[in-house]
Design goal:
alpha+beta, Metal Binding Protein, Guanine Nucleotide Exchange Factor, Chain A, six-stranded antiparallel sheet, 2 helices
């Protein structure tokens, strides 16, 4: 996969202020505020910053958390996970493997078959229907 490396000025030009805050500054959108949280259509979810395919609708589930949730990424190479010790917590941050943008976090409290809950900011995603 070809990496996408842009300057901060280029990211600011490409993204909305809310997207920039979440994707480039590891912010979090308000729960239940995202446009893709309740999306039930079949398709693929893309990184809103670079278009990398990161999650499939077949792996999406309603976690009740207020953010789109998935049991696994589209492929093991689609995202990267990183230790996140911010805000006095220890969590696992999930980033786009192509552009290193913050997508959300992964927690070990999801349903089978993986037991994982990728809790992803809606504003960090775009949706491509099948």
């Amino acid at each position: 996969m070809e990496q996408l490396n842009l300057s901060e000025a280029e990211w600011r030009d490409r993204l909305t202020p809310e997207q920039y805050h979440v994707l480039r500054q590891a912010g979090t959108e308000r729960a239940f505020a995202g446009t893709l949280t309740d999306n039930k259509a079949a398709g693929v979810y893309l990184c809103a910053a670079c278009g990398n395919e990161v999650f499939d609708s077949a792996d999406k589930f309603d976690s009740g958390s207020g953010w789109p949730s998935y049991t696994q990424p589209l492929t093991a190479e689609a995202v990267t996970d990183h230790a996140d010790r911010s805000h006095g917590m220890v969590r696992v941050e999930t980033r786009c493997a192509r552009c290193d943008s913050h997508l959300g976090h992964v927690f070990p409290d999801g349903p089978p078959p993986t037991g994982q809950r990728y809790c992803i900011n809606s504003v960090a995603l775009a949706f491509k229907p099948r």
